[in-house]
Structures are given as C-alpha cells and as structure tokens.
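Let's practice the habit of predicting before peeking. Look at the sequence and jot down your guess about where helices and strands might fall. Then scroll down.
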Amino acid sequence: VNDADRRIPFQYGKRQGGRKMYGGQSSNLPMKVNMSGVLPIIFAQSIATLPATVCMLFGITEKSGGFWGGFLSVFNTTSVLYAIIYLLLIVFFAYFYSTIQFNPIEVANNLKNNGGFIPGIRPGRPTSDFLSKVLNKITLFGAVYLGIIAIVPIIVSICSSSAANSGISLGGTSIIIVVGVALE
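Done guessing? Here is the structure:
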C-alpha cells in the first residue's frame, strides 16, 4: 500500500504541423494511494498528545482528580477515546495533505492546454471533477490504511496486559518508516 498508485490513462490528440503528425500518444497519470506518507500520523500524534503534555507541564496527573485529572485520563495514550481522536486526526491530516499536494484543477488545465484528455471525459471542468473524485476515494483508502497501522499498537496495549507491562511498543510511524526505507 505504501508504494501503490492509481494510474489514470490519458491521451494527447493528433495534430499536424507541416508534413509531420504530432501527438496521438497515450500515457497515464499516477496518483499515489498514500500520498502523504507518515506525515498525518506525525501531525495527529503531536496534536493528540498536546493536552497531556500541557497537563504534565503544570504537574497535573491522573491521580490529581477533578476536572483536569479526568481530562488527562481521556488523553491518556492507552484510552479508547484517545484512539478514536487519533484515528480521526489521521484521516483529517491525510485529506489535508493530499489536497495541498495535488491540485486537480491545475492538472486538468495542463492536460487541456497541451491537448491531452482522459478518454470518456471532456477536458476542463469535468476532468477536474473526475480527478478530485478519484483523489477523494484513494485518499480515503490511504487514510484508513494509515489509521489501522497507527491504531493497532494502541489497541494491543489496551487489550493486553503483557504488552503494557513489557514496555516494548512498536508505533505505526516507526513501522511505516522501516517499511519505506526497506523498499527504497
């Protein structure tokens, strides 16, 4: 999934310049499924742990009780609510990064200006709409993939007392980085 991409075929129309024919080539536009890499996990982790870090900075612990003790127990990295918030932040940052990284309007205009088109789709606005629809679908798949990789270690530590007692933990970020480096 880390190196997967969706290839969208496109063609350039034929045109004649003098006695030569130009164009008529067929190619494809690769759109990565996981366009953002590990950045959504890193951003989500830093934001999700921010409340606990601020509470610890002021000396508030879960044993303090009251509002702040309860607040800190919610943002404990082994709570179910933390895992849900973490997953939602990962999905948000995956979409945020992919919309910044890939601009369907610009790609559609470049194809149109160079005489290119996606077969079965009109150049211009319909191409832009098609590309944004495909981008949303593959980003959802990539975001769910990132979320599962990041949440599984948290779920294992919640469900297993031996994982919590041993102190050995593999986070989602480190797994994706190791796999990416191994593939390179």
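How did you do? Residues 8 and 79 are 41 Å apart (CA to CA).
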